[in-house]
Design goal:
elongated, about 0% strand, mainly alpha, 10 helices
Length: about 240
């Protein structure tokens, strides 16, 4: 009896050991699958290829939900190999965020140009708004793609963390407060959010409605609305 019980315990111990070993192996494999993939730098990609991928991403993601798009569809739409996408991006989310960063990076460069070199705070903000609305008018697909990215995921698009752009914008707003031109009863980031929120809502709804006239066709009226919301009211005279 003792020998029989001992054999059973030994058998059970061996079986549990095998299961434990198998479980650890499965966990190890799963961990390896979730490790980020090393990708090649985009600077190694031909500009023409990157341009095709950008167009494909904007068209596909503007029309469908992000979860419905596959890497194969992106590759087919861009007329590039699936291997190329994985080589330079690694996964679908990285394709989306990287392309949006490239698109918005060009807008950021134009914004920086207009945030500097002009003395008047009003003129700097006026020209910056025009550039942003011009982007909406000429890149409706990109606007639609951005509308589908969760706010909690914006940090994955590098341009949203661009300190040079943010600091340049905040410095203009700070200059406006110091000159007594802009509202100074709220923090700078509130003025920044009002400005960018105005553009975001206008851009998304204008694109969804497929308005015939471009946004900048009503630029003066739109800027006046924005300016009144962030500028100090003129002192009333007796």
């Amino acid at each position: 009896m003792k020998n029989s019980r001992s054999k059973q315990q030994s058998s059970t111990s061996t079986s549990n050991s095998k299961k434990s070993s198998k479980t650890k192996g499965e966990i190890s494999k799963a961990a390896n699958r979730t490790k980020p993939l090393a990708v090649a730098p985009l600077s190694d990609m031909r500009p023409a290829t990157l341009e095709k991928i950008e167009k494909a991403v904007c068209q596909l993601f503007a029309g469908d939900d992000v979860s419905d798009i596959t890497m194969i569809e992106i590759a087919n739409a861009a007329n590039v190999s699936l291997q190329t996408l994985y080589k330079y991006f690694g996964d679908k989310q990285t394709v989306l965020y990287t392309i949006m960063d490239i698109v918005l990076g060009r807008l950021a460069t134009r914004m920086m140009d207009h945030l500097q070199g002009i003395d008047s705070v009003e003129d700097r903000l006026r020209k910056t708004l025009w550039v942003c609305l011009d982007f909406v008018d000429n890149h409706p697909d990109a606007v639609m793609v951005l509308s589908k990215v969760s706010i909690s995921r914006f940090h994955n698009i590098a341009i949203y963390n661009n300190k040079d752009l943010i600091n340049a914008f905040l410095s203009v707003l700070k200059d406006g407060q110091n000159r007594g031109v802009l509202v100074d009863t709220v923090p700078l980031n509130i003025l920044f959010d009002v400005f960018m929120g105005f553009i975001s809502r206008l851009g998304i709804m204008h694109t969804i409605r497929q308005a015939e006239l471009p946004l900048n066709a009503n630029f003066d009226a739109l800027f006046n609305i924005l300016w009144r919301s962030i500028s100090k009211p003129e002192s009333s005279t007796p």
